[in-house]
Amino acid sequence: MSSLREGIPAAPGIVIGPARVLRWEVPRVPHGATVPAEQADAEIARFREALVYASDRIKALMVRTAEAIGEVEARIFEPQVLMLEDADLIDGTIRTIRENLLTAERAFEWRVLEWESALSHSSHPMVLDRLADLADVQTRVLRRLMGMPDPDLAARVGDGEKFILVARELTPSVTVQLDPRTVMGIATDLGTRTSHSAILARSLEIPCVVSVGNLSETVRDGDELILDGRTGRVVVGASEEDREAYRQRDYLIREWEQELVLLAHLPAVTRDGVRMALRSNIDLPGESDNARIQGAEGVGLYRTEFLVVGRATAPNEEEQFRAYKRVTESFPGQPVVIRTFDLGGDKFPAFLHIGREENPFLGWRAIRVCLDEPAIFRTQLRALIRAMPFGDLRIMLPLVNEISEVTRTRALIGEAIEELRAEGQPVPDAYKLGAMVETPAAALIAPELARHVDFFSIGTNDLVQYTLAVDRGNSRLASRYNPFHPAVVRLLAAICKAGNEAGIEVSVCGEVAATPLGAFLLIGMRASSLSVGPPALAEIKKVIRSVTYDDAAAGVAEALAAHSPEEVVSVLTARLSRVLDLGKFSASLGLSRVD
């Protein structure tokens, strides 16, 4: 009998084949490994040699990845190199060797466990991705210290037979060694859609589903699997009827994808002539190239936390300037909206030294941290201003709740411009500053807030969470996290109305915009632009080009009168399904799982 397992879609494609379970674990260090005091210096020297060795191996892997896949993908390994140079990791290990007289491998394992403990409290995908990088680094350093050979994946799975790889989790260095000629698909128990392994799987064009639960513990080598990388589903023990159904679906999806490819560089305009701006959300500077290829008309949300998460020291102005300039230059003549550091909640870099909070998502985070840490904020603002002459760079503030947060930031920007001008740096004559509207408070003061900013960007992920008082990372509450709740729909309509009446742009950069029903709803509310991840760009452009504004506006009117989330979904589905086959979309009705 077949069984269906649900995960997170990470790389598209439908494949049918036998499972191959890969056990890939960090080497186990013997307990009680101590050394005499006079041997501590030798252990420290051994540890330093292992760091250099691991760093050299990772840099060599970067070169091979750049040659085989591309420069952008090769940069995925940069965080691992930085980890091996991190003073907190190195000094902490050395201190443990000296104070506890442990072997280098045991002391390093202790220090890594402390890092893992700090990171594992987070549910944010960017932080969780650091855990996979850390495991990669840990494996290389420990294997060197323990006299074990480097990982050789080919010896484990390279017998030439085609299979679907099942593992608890894959590290980037393992993923990059996979051969698409034999690895038909990947299914992992853990992981996120934005993990470096998932990014590499997409680059290698291997269908992938992550976060499937305990799949690797329940599946055996040879079990027949069907893996659907668009929906995040894995069928175990597939019947002939299942296989035939998925073959038919694969055929239809391939036709659909061919159709979407042709849309990439067509304008995002509705059938009755309403123009929308369709932009991309990105996390890393290198993702801007892929976004442009997929048809993005600029960047609607560039998250800057990659510069600080997992870092023991704050990034300097020059490092930030280079990152902002790179993305801005990728879209000549098109907007690039860069969000200032959205720290706090579950994203605290080591250099902030924040104490434990009872409710971190309601605590010291985002613009509150920036304004309370002016040295960090001024450095970021100076870097952003320096990058402005290279394109249409716009600054966006996260979690704005009070108008004073905008006015205080404008004062800091004014000071930074004067400083840079005095230093002889080119500075813009004018700039655009926007606010993320992601709390009910900001939504309710939107008419007043609109007079102090140049644009709104609605962050629907947090807006839904705060409006419904539902933790979006809590799996027990997943069914209650509903962006089509009437309260959310009415807030979205109010924000769009306030922005439109003030004559400022209203963009939407949350997950809602990446779903066909959400995009349809926002078109009807007259949002100015939608910003979605690169994989969703073509599908959302398909929605925009298939509908009319008048029909979407009529759908909004019905949704605003609805009394339940189900009623909202029903009225939108009824209208949209007249012009589109919703079954072909990656997220056909609601949202994909929040990761």
From TrEMBL:
The active site is at H196 (tele-phosphohistidine intermediate), C509 (proton donor). Residues 162-232 form the PEP-utilising enzyme mobile domain. Its EC number is 2.7.3.9. Residues 6-122 form the Phosphotransferase system enzyme I N-terminal domain. InterPro entries: PEP-util_enz_mobile_dom, PEP-utilizing_PTS_enzyme, PEP_util_C, PEP_util_CS, Phosphohistidine_dom_sf, PTS_EI, PTS_EI-like, PTS_EIN. Mg(2+) binds at E438, D462. Residues 263-547 form the PEP-utilising enzyme C-terminal domain. It catalyses: L-histidyl-[protein] + phosphoenolpyruvate = N(pros)-phospho-L-histidyl-[protein] + pyruvate. GO terms for biological process: phosphoenolpyruvate-dependent sugar phosphotransferase system. Phosphoenolpyruvate binds at R303, R339, N461, D462, R472. Its main location: cytoplasm. One of its GO terms (molecular function) is phosphoenolpyruvate-protein phosphotransferase activity. Gene3D superfamilies: Phosphoenolpyruvate-binding domains, Phosphohistidine domain, PtsI, HPr-binding domain. GO terms for cellular component: cytoplasm. It comes from the Bacteria. It is found in: Cytoplasm. Its cofactor is Mg(2+). Keywords: Cytoplasm, Kinase, Magnesium, Metal-binding, Phosphotransferase system, Sugar transport, Transferase, Transport. Belongs to the PEP-utilizing enzyme family. NCBIfam families: PTS_I_fam. General (non sugar-specific) component of the phosphoenolpyruvate-dependent sugar phosphotransferase system (sugar PTS). This major carbohydrate active-transport system catalyzes the phosphorylation of incoming sugar substrates concomitantly with their translocation across the cell membrane. Enzyme I transfers the phosphoryl group from phosphoenolpyruvate (PEP) to the phosphoryl carrier protein (HPr). This is Phosphoenolpyruvate-protein phosphotransferase. It comes from Longimicrobium terrae.
